[in-house]
Each structure stands twice: as structure tokens, then as C-alpha cells.
Amino acid sequence: MKHKTIFVLGFAAFALVLSNCLYRTEEKSENVPAISHAERVKRGEYLVNAVGCDDCHTPKIMTAHGPEPDTSRRFMGHPATEPFDSDEVMKKLVSSTHVGIFSSGFTATVGDWGVSYAANLTPDDTGIGAWTEEQFFKAIREGKSKGLDGTRPLLPPMPWPVYRNFSDDDLKAIFAYLKSVKPIQNVVPNPKAL
Questions:
Q1: Domain identity same for 125 and 166
Q2: How far apart, in whole angstroms, are the C-alpha atoms of residue 62 and residue 104?
Q3: pLDDT value of residue 167
Q4: Are 174 and 44 in contact (CB under 8 A)?
């Protein structure tokens, strides 16, 4: 009987704590003030910088410190004018060692999956200019090219399986920021199989 009483009291305490946590969460979410568009864009800029979108989506230039993002071409993806084709040596190297090789601008990668090119994230129509917020969410959360059903998956090295864990508010902020940057016309090549 004593064990049963302890179990019932323990369960009741757990239920009370859980209901209190749920109540506080709901109360807190109702009191969160809406942020302005400018604040959302600023948050998006912070997140984009923190997670390193420039690492793949901005071509690099060589500096005294090594390769750095070319801010005049920020987020344009792999430049259409810079070929990055895998030849037989790359094919053999990748298939025999299972490594990935980046282009000199770090905007294209060849690996076991083939050759992938970083997308244009600018608000130009050759980038995400015509995208809706819903498409952006689908691209990041489901790994769908252009955020459309029936399209190919996003390819490595795009870490969408990690980025899909962003909150809705964070994804809205990132999208708002990317829509605010300088549009750059650049048709990124389609991926290739090896």
C-alpha cells in the first residue's frame, strides 16, 4: 500500500509540474510582442551570418588571409561563368576514396552523388526572387529543390537536415533578410551525375 501511495503522489506531482510548464509556455507565447519587418530582417542577417551561408553561396576571392567571401557577389551561388566539370581523374578519386572536392570558389562540390552547385539566394528571379515563404520553408524543412513538390532533393553539402530544426520565426527572419539583399542575376548550373 505504501508503494502505491508513493507512486500515486509521484504521478500527481509530475502531472502538476507538466501542466504548470504547459500553462507557462502558452502564457509566454501569448505575451511575445510581434516584431517589425526591420527587426525580422536584422534577426535574419544575424542567423545567416551565424550559420555560414556565405561559406557555400558566396564566391571567394584570394586575400592575404586566404579565401574570403566576395561581398560584391554575395549569395549569388556558383557563378554560371565559372565552369567546374568533373573529369575522369575526379571521378576516379571520388569513387575510390569517397571524398568531396570543392571548386576554388567553394561554390561547387563533387562527391559520390555527382556535382552540386550552390544556389543563388539573392532576390533576383534567377535566385529566390519569385519564391514564396512557403517554398522557402519546404526547401529547408523537406530538402526540396526550389521548395516545390516533385523536384529533386537538395544535394550535399547543403545541411538542410540540420537547418530544418530552425523555428518558424527564424526561417521567416532568414527569408526576409535574403529578400532584402542585392539581387544578382546568375543562373546556377544544374547538378550533374558522375
A1: yes
A2: 10
A3: 97
A4: yes
Is residue 26 located within the same domain as residue 99? no
Question: Does the residue 26 lie in any domain?
Answer: yes
pLDDT at 15 over 90: no
Residues near 157 by Cβ (< 8 Å), separated by ≥ 6?
Answer: 56, 100, 109, 116
| Domain of 44, in residue numbers | 36-180
Per-residue model confidence as pLDDT tens digits over 42-80: 999 999 999 999 999 999 999 999 999 999 999 999 999
Query: What is the distance between the alpha carbons of residues 48 and 54, in angstroms, rounded to a whole number?
Result: 8
Q: Sign of torsion, CA 35 41 46 47?
A: positive
Cα separation, 140 vs 159, in Å, equals 9
Q: Tell me, yes or no, whether 25 and 80 share the same domain.
A: no
18 pLDDT band (50/70/90 cuts)? very low
Rounded to 10 deg, the angle between the 168-180 and 37-51 helix axes is: 90
Percent over 70 (pLDDT), the chain:
77
Q: In this structure, are 27 and 43 located in the same domain?
A: no
83 and 42 within one domain: yes
In a domain, 186, yes or no: no
Closest CA to 119 of 148, 155, 94: 155
pTM, 2 dp: 0.79
Residue-level pLDDT at 89: 56
